[in-house]
Amino acid sequence: MSDLDISVVICVYTEDRWEDILAAVSSVRAQSRPALETLLVVDHNPTLLDRLAKEYKDCKETGEVRVLANAGPRGLSAGRNTGIAAARGEVIAFLDDDAVAEREWLRRFAEGYADPRVMAVGGRTMPIWASGRRPAWFPEEFDWVVGCTYRGLPPGLVRVRNVLGGNASFRRTAFDAAGGFATGIGRDGDKRPLGCEETELCIRLTRARPDAILLIDDRAVIHHRVPEAREHFGYFRTRAYAEGLSKALVARSVGADKGLESERRYTTRVLPAGVVRGLRDAVLARPGGAGRAGAIVAGVLTAAGGYVVGSVRARKGGAAFSVVGIEGGSQ
pTM to 2 decimals? Predict the structure, then answer.
């Protein structure tokens, strides 16, 4: 196992997730392989910043938990970059503020870095549905809509084009080589586009370091809360459209060949198999079969529409993002 120190960055933005934030931090503090530190980066919310500083004031001297203000523009990407710059670890892991990590999470990440060519290791994200169960119509192939691992990703410890940002880790040297997360593409409250910043970073990283290896280890598990509002088809459709917008930006930046490399297999193999599975379940009178098949078709068409609109905007110069270098590392 690698003996590299690991810093954990959790980006937060709202007091509405107060209990979730505390649970996320507690799950990091309970790891079998302790983190060097946990960094809470608060996105332009002075009230939350002050409240968290008071909550973890006893950790100030040890540095076990540090509370920081996002030093860049509003949004998840700048928050992550703030955490990267402040982190002292040789590996930097990211955990969503509404997720909890299993006890072996960091241990599994650390094992992946035994090979010095490995620049990033991601894990598996499982949904915790607010209603207590997956909606019958919601296809597992679209669990990325709610920030979770979706059907179609290969199991085990596998090499991938990109890790998924809510459950991922990178060597610090990855950011030295490629820069930080791009701003203008990642999450900023409910604004669109809403994602793909980790995809763009990973592609940029492998271009800067052609020998780089990126892995997903499905034993590095976190559990991600899915609020009731995200269990409805309206959110499903909105998020699929936003994904299309984001993919257009990425493809414009890195080229469609690389930017859509994984998506081609997903749309030509994984999703058709999902439609067939849903229709088979409908014929067998199993709950939700027709709904899942229909949701897959609707999701593909909506994402494709977003991609077309995003491509037109990008060509006209109406949508752009920027990449900044990361400074710091010993605050």
Answer: 0.92
